[in-house]
Every structure is written in C-alpha cells, then in structure tokens.
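Reposting from the mailing list since nobody answered there.

I have sequence plus structure tokens for a pair of proteins and want to know whether others read the tokens the same way I do. The first protein:
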Amino acid sequence: MYMLLLNVLYLILHMASSSRHETVVTLMPNVLVVKVDRKVFTETQVPLRCGDYQDTEVIWRNGEEHLENKGNQINVEVVEMMGGNYSCHNAAGDYLNHTLVLVQDIPSPNRTRRVLEKSHDTDKDEYIRCLAKNYSGIFHCSWKKTEYRMSAAVVFVQVGRTISCSVDSDGEGLTCQDRDSCPFAEELSRIKLTVYFRTNYLLEDYTITPFYIREIVKPDKIDITKVEGNTFQWRYPATWSRPCPYFPLTFRVKVVQHEASCDSKEKVLISETNINATEFTVRSSYKKYCFCLGAKDDLVDSQWSQWTRHEVKNKPKKH
C-alpha cells in the first residue's frame, strides 16, 4: 500500500512538472511545435492525426524509419529537442499526409540565441532590421545568420495588417507589402512581425519591435546631376514617393578632407543640415575635398540616406 501511494504521488508530480515544461501548439497547417524548457529533461507525448481515414489501414514513418504505431490517430514521444517529420501512408505505401514536429526552447530572459547575430547598426537589441525606400507600403527586412546556423531557413512569417511577405532567394531577408497601404493616409496601427527559423527540428523565433512605415523609411542615395566648379546640383531619388512637394526631403551636406570618410568627425571642413534646396555651393579655397550629400524625410524623424560621395580636385588657376 505504501509503495502504491509513492508511485501515485510520483506520477502526479511528474505530470505536474511536465505540464510546466512542455506545451504543444500548432504553428501552421502540418507543423506542430513542442515548447520545452531546455534546463530540464522532458519527454512529450505529441498527438498526430493523418486525416479522415477511419476505414483505411494507416501506417506511419518518421523520415525513412517505420513506426510501430498504426492508425489514423497516434501519439509519438518527443524526447528533449528531438523532433521529427512524420508521414502517414496507406497499406500500399502511398503517401496520405504528414506532420512536421519542431521543438522550441521556452522563451526566457537568459535564453541563448543561436540562429541570428545581433545587429551592430543600432543601439537597440535587434536581430532583424526593416527599411522602406518610400511610402508605397513595400519594405525589406534583413538579418545575418551566425556561422554555426548558416543552414537555418525561414519556416513561417507571422505579420499583422494586410501584409504579405516573401523570403529572398538567398535566405538573408524578406520583402513585404501592405496591400491596403495608402501613401497619403496616416497609418492607424503599427506593423507586428515575427520570423520563425528552423535548423533541422529546432525552432527559433525573432519578433521585431512594432513599427510604422514612417519610422523605418530611408531614402535611396541622392543622384548628383551636375557639378560646376564648387557648385553641386541634385535631384530626388527615383524611388522616393511622388509628388515631391507632398513628400519633401531635407538634405545635409558635409565637406571633408580629400580621401576622408563621409562619416569622419575629425576631418570635417563644412557641415550643414536642414537644407531644402537641391543646390549647394562650397564657398572655400579648398583645392581637394570630398563633397558628401544625404537626405531624409523632412516631416518625420526618420533615418538619413547613405552618403553620396563626390571627390573634387580643382586645378590651380593659371596666372
């Protein structure tokens, strides 16, 4: 009697512990995710259903391995982080359906990120960066994989509003479009975006801080159209929203020493911002210098474009 009570108590404690450390959720059709705590040993019973095959003999495989379980509905055991790709077949071996079982570590403040590197372009805790060239509703998100997870692939993109996304052919980013976007209307809700990556049967998700298009807009580099002496003329990028008076840009000019970087802070000869004209004259006697030009939306606090750089080598005047 004493041993029976101990066994019952053990089972109750084990089930309670399992319920805290394991959860099975549906990520998308034919994909289940077992969420586990990697700090503890877990064995999870995952229910699988082939479909509506009540009167059909159904056999199962995990990859190429034949399972002893048979029937339209079965349970498989997932031990710790070992997921699987389970397919069901009829007695003749014909394919009927499949379920991909992935395993994900339960989110915690100290969990280790393995798929993506943290972005070094910002002070924020970001792994994915999104930018828009204009207000058309199209934007692009990019990331960098760690050297140990180069084979990781996007398995699912969860996004709000009426937005559709497609993964780039190189797997290093995705392009999204808000089908109901209107460049002339104010956005009413932020965009929420989560990208799920799979490495074998391990799953990691990365959620971007919700944003408006106006917060990620960044014009393309400016085209300098004409240079006469020390006078420079330019035009709006071809990709920027039109009409220009409705979507005005403001410009910044920096003149740095010859061969210096436009980002240089020590070798700056001239620096001016909040320029609304599309022409600027460098009033100086410098014979060699670099003219740097950038642009941003004049009406919102958005990002500056990349510098457009033009080297100047004025010839000495003949006396």
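The second protein, same order (residues first, tokens after):
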Amino acid sequence: MEATGTDDVDKLKTKFISAWNNMKYSWVLKTKTYFSRNSPVLLLGKCYHFKYEDEDELLPARSGCTIEDHVIAGNVEEFRKDFISRIWLTYREEFPQIEGSALTTDCGWGCTLRTGQMLLAQGLILHFLGRAWTWPDALNIENSESESWTSNTVKKFTTSFEASLSGERELKTPTVSLKEKIERYSDEMQNEIYHRKIISWFGDSPLALFGLHQLIEYGKKSGKKAGDWYGPAVVAHILRKAVEEARHPDLKGITIYVAQDCTEMLSTEQIYSSDVIDKQCTSMASDNTNDKAVIILVPVRLGGERTNADYLDFVKGILSLEYCVGIIGGKPKQSYYFAGFQDDSLIYMDPHYCQSFVDVSIKDFPLETFHCPSPKKMSFRKMDPSCTVGFYCRNVQDFKRASEEITKMLKISSKEKYPLFTFVNGHSRDYDFTSTTTSEEDLFSEDEKKRIKRFSTEEFVLL
C-alpha cells in the first residue's frame, strides 16, 4: 500500500507540473520580427536580398515580420515560403504516456530534443526532397481550412484541367500540354507523400521512428530519462543511434556520423574522413552498391561561460553553406534551432510553444502545426556557447567536396584561433561502424561516454 501511495503522489505531482508548464508555454506573445532592407538574409545556405521598392506599399499583415516598416518586394515572399516550409517541432501535450513515467507532455524539459528533431528533419528534407523544395501551401498556413493539402491540390488540378478542356483559358495564356500537367501533378503528389512521411517519423507516439518516445528510450541508455534536460552533444549521439536503428526501407540510404574529440584537454572536434566514407559505403543490402548519404553532427563550444564574439564569423560561415542543416543551440535555459542570420542576429525556430498532440497515423493528418508561420531573431551575443552543427552530404563525392569547402570556411572564420573542428585523413582508433547491437553496454563507445560526460558538465540547463 505504501508503494502504491507513493506512485499516486508522484503521478499527481507530475500532472501538476505538466499542467503548469502547459499553461506557461501555451501563452506565446506574437511579436513582429524586424528585418533590414539593406542586408542579405541567409537561410540554410540560401541568400535572400530584400530591396526597397515602394514606400507606400504595406507588408501583408499575415507575414509576421516587418522590414523597417516598408514592403520589400525583392525576395520577401520567397524567403517566407522557404522558412515556413522547414519542419517545426515543438512542445506537445496529451500525447501517449511515456513509458516509465506519468508524463504526457514534454513542456519544460524537451526543447533540445525538439531542436534536434528539427535538424534531423531538415536533413531528411534534403535527402528526399532537395533544398529547392518548398511546401506549396506555405504562404496560406495562417488561413488554412480544415481540408487537407492533398484534397486542395486535387481540386485545383481538376479545375485547371477542366478549364483547359473547355477552352476557358485566355488565348494569351501559354498552353501547357496534358502530359506536362500530369507530370507536374505527379511530382507534387510524390513530394507530398514524402513531406507527410517525414513528419510522421517525428510523431509523438511510441512507434514513430524519431519521435520523442523513441529518442527518450535511447537517452535512457546514456543515463537520461523523461523529464531530464538534454544537451546538444547528448542529443547528437541519440539522433545517431536512432537513425542507425531505424528499420525502414526508405532510411537504408542515410546514416549519421558524430565528430570526436582529439584530446581530453582541447575541445576541438575531429571528423575522420575514412570513418565517414566507411559509413557511407557500408550497405545493409549486399546487392546495393550506392553510397549512403550522411548527416555529420559536430558538438562544439563557442567559448567558456559565454559565447566568444570572435566565433560570429564561424556561425555565419556554417549557416551560409549549402550543406548546412542547421544548429542545435540556444541561449541559457532555452534551446533553439538556428537556421539562418542577418547581420549579427540569428534566425531561429522556437520549440517553446505547447501544441496539442496530433495523431500522424491518421490519413491526411493536419500539417499546419508542423510549420512555423514566422521567423524569430536573436542577437548572436545571447547565444549559449554549447551547440551542435549539422551538415548533409548525399554521397561520398559530395562529402569530399563538402569537406574541402568547410575546411576553407574554417580557415577564414578561425583567423588566428585554433579551428573548432577539423577533417582528418584516415580512421579513428576505436570507432566501429559494423556493430548493430542495441545493448546498454554497447550503445555508446567508451570515447563517446567520456565525451558525453564532459559535455554534460558544461552544457546549459534547458527549461
């Protein structure tokens, strides 16, 4: 009876804390984000220029951002569509209970897991859809109806098709063949299938491959549990294991590599090129000779207790690369997913917004809550020094080209400082990529356990 009473008290305490966090994080102040018209905006390797054209025009109210109180005709809509198309993963409530706890929400403790999910989601977007892909309904997200994107697309295509058959189009409109229409529609539908599939992999249920429940299970094997805070370095290793253990045919062609320390004294990370290439060339199917794509995660520190301003060029350089899939970082007590910058301000997506659970197993589940309607900005000076940067390379050739470009960028941004990470030819001493065991003892190598322990003492507490 005593044990049962204690369990009831723990459950009641957990529910009270969850209710408090739900109330705390469900109230989000909708503030405008200001962008300068005089400086370019970089978003995950893409550059946008906002040029002032008409002083009398007003920026659309639904855009959620203001550019010096003027409409900048240039690339504003293109930038907004690109940003909104990134997958946004936030706190959720009322999802299935996490095993071993009474938690049905991650409000107040899961923000780094969410930013890690966002980085991985961007890597999967690049892998399956490419960097040029954008969600067709991105600019309509705030005016979305209950109908699914798929049904809307079908209606638009049908209307267009019927109009072309009945000759209702104006003669000056360029004609498009039926074959081209069908091919275009087929491509859009295929992209939508992958768009939904990627989001479903991050659903808040025990079966979702990269959902919170699965990530927490892998976290347990490194000493973490639901309700604990997770640092960017720990999340990097959890993501690696989650991808390695994912048993889905579409994911056989992608893997994750996490950079390693070169010494105990220095925080410089090393990417062993031969190890990366080995991972890319190791195929689960003996008849598959194609290279694997790889997401490279590099945990770094940008200073001591505070971020060193000298590393601003490094962060800008990372976010300017076409290979970049973002940065798991934040400011003290909060984790953000950094995806771009303008001048000395970082552009990010914020997971600290509590939304209701969405059952992604339902056909045509709503997509709107998985896309952020407006960007946020933060001064680089407020950035916490602990972070993990990510890159995506489609094949071995792409990795070799990326390593050369990233090395050049590191030399330029490091100036007189020692680089935060380096590419090293050859193999590391004890990294084994052929092991597929999932036991607690073998989940992380001894080197990784030391790294995680060291980073855990340095990283900020995320609330």
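Reply #1 (J.P.):
I read it the same way you do. The chain has twelve helices and 18 strands.
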